[in-house]
UniProtKB/TrEMBL annotation:
SUPFAM superfamilies: Family A G protein-coupled receptor-like. It is found in: Cell membrane. The keyword Cell membrane applies. GO terms for cellular component: plasma membrane. Residues 41-291 form the G-protein coupled receptors family 1 profile domain. It comes from Chrysochloris asiatica (Cape golden mole). The gene is LOC102833515. Its main location: membrane. This is Olfactory receptor. The keyword NADP does not apply. Belongs to the G-protein coupled receptor 1 family. It is a multi-pass membrane protein.
Amino acid sequence: MDVYNLTTITEFILIGLSDLPEVRYPLFVIFAAIYQITLLGNGAILLAIGTEKKLRTPMYYFLANLSLLDIFCPSATVPKMLQNLLSEKQSISFVGCALQLFFLVALAGTEVFLLSVMAYDRYVAICFPLRYTLIMTKWLCVQLTAGTWAAGFLNSLLHTVFTFRLSFCKSNRVNQYYCDIPPVVALSCSSTYVAEMLVLVVGGVLGISAFLITGISYIYIISTILKIRSAEGKRKAFSTCASHLLVVCLFYGTTIFTYIRPSSSHHSPARDRLISMLYGVITPMLNPIIYSLRNTEVKGALRKVLCHKTCFTK
């Protein structure tokens, strides 16, 4: 469906996997299951942190925020994607598309900033253990967390405004299963220079800054751990940041693979979109698994919650 000059677009068509109809129903089952596991896993982390007093520390305060993001971020795209997998009409309203893009970019941006804050927290804990409680005060943690959410949402507001002030008269077919900046901007029939430069400059500066903070923090952390003489001391120090390091590698690895890799010439665009779908929903599902498997305190708190519920039902 093409919409030409003088016609205002009131809705977009999310192509998704419309050219792979044979996998629609199996994908619905797979993604519905992944989404449920994501909600349950991150909800369990939040419940464990909220009920266990030993977990009322800066590290777990930031982890609770990460779990919230891992609930909200897929919730911005997956319900609509599941609806479209079962529906013949794969449309989304103009306002709905703008809201979806806004929340997706805001939550993803907030997660980038939060991961850098979590890396700084681990840097202080390992490099300055005696001063940790003096540096990472409750007030500083609140300020850092509020700053990450504010930066993510303000950054997204800027991109959303400059994306949807463009004129759309070429087509209304979004080459993705959700509304994202590149496929929406590609539909514009007016100059996209400002919108594209904002992504490159503002997004680049903020993203690279967060990445550098995370990377430099871990350079200092690894350097400090290597200076510890005892093997047991090294193991204990590394165990405090191993889960976060895995989550950082997973997040940046999947982001680079999804957005920076070239489209494969051997696969159809639908298969590239399928890879994007998988990486977009799998990362939020794996984060609570990583923290619950590698962190003894989280595992202990989850056991207490499950035992309490089991005893209560009996």
